[in-house]
Amino acid sequence: IRFSGLEDYDDWDALNIIKVRDQDGDVIRGLEPIDGGLVILKDTSVWPLYGTSITNLRLGTTPLTDIAGCVSDTGSIPGVFFSSSNLFTFSLAEVQEATPSHTPIFDALTDTEKRAAIVGFQPIHKRALFHIPAKDLTLVADGKNSCLTTWEGLNANCFTCADGVGDDGRLILGDATTGDVYMLSGSDDAGTAIPTLVKSLYFDHGSINDKIWRKFEPDVSLLAEGIYSVTTVCDLDYRSSTSSQDNTSGHATLGGEVMTFGGEIVTLDGGSLAASPANWDDEFWSIAVWAEQVPIEIEHWLHGQRGRKASFEIRTDLRCRVHGYEITYSDTDRK
Questions:
Q1: Residue 282 pLDDT more than 50?
Q2: How many CB atoms are located within 10 Å of the residue 88 CB?
Q3: What is the pTM (predicted TM-score) of this model?
């Protein structure tokens, strides 16, 4: 790597050079500035360059990885690069494989197809697109939802992002066939939701006796905003769907100022709910915002059903976290 003098693009001192394992035959494919230094992407390795000026530059003694590298000169964006085997995320400290779920897709691509990948980046949506023209395939690294998805039907020859003053960060693409320019609207891919299903083991709660089950309270937090529906099922003694209920309550907004539930608008005051008893029944429903989660408290009444063991099931189309559950019962042999 050769570099010029500070803000002097005509000054190329012969000593301003950094050798990055120059005897391995690898080509440097990309240079990605990161706070505190630079990440150097080669064909089969990735290196850290620490420092912020000519006086403190220091190349790492070992690569961040020597089992993956950038596949082409246009195969990287800040934080992500396209390798011959998968997408990888990187920082000055480490390189990580994005997800192994799409490895078969990478294996089916030829080296020529991988090198021809067209890259687009949407900083506002934290989304990177790697388009393979020959396959009508676009791999989308979604940093907001920490996932990797695939798109089809995006006949693009180039990407850019509308990120100037007053722009909303939407992606602009040039059509490979007609040469027309299009703007990709929306913040998601409008795909079919993948349902989340969480089911617990059957548990006798320390007693093999029959029990009179009273109440079931799952502890669930939503990890994304939007219209949501959460279905809870409590199964007693392997009887399918012994009791279930659908808890659909409108639109949940993470960290926002307004939340809508069941047609009522509830405003947030310093992170807590401010609502009158007329439109909010605290006895059965409550919600609070903490960081990037929306905890939902649900009381699920079992009306004295009998059984020895209980299992619970949570179904929803949104990303969620199940912390556990509380179940209330009485022993039938209690005197």
A1: no
A2: 23
A3: 0.51
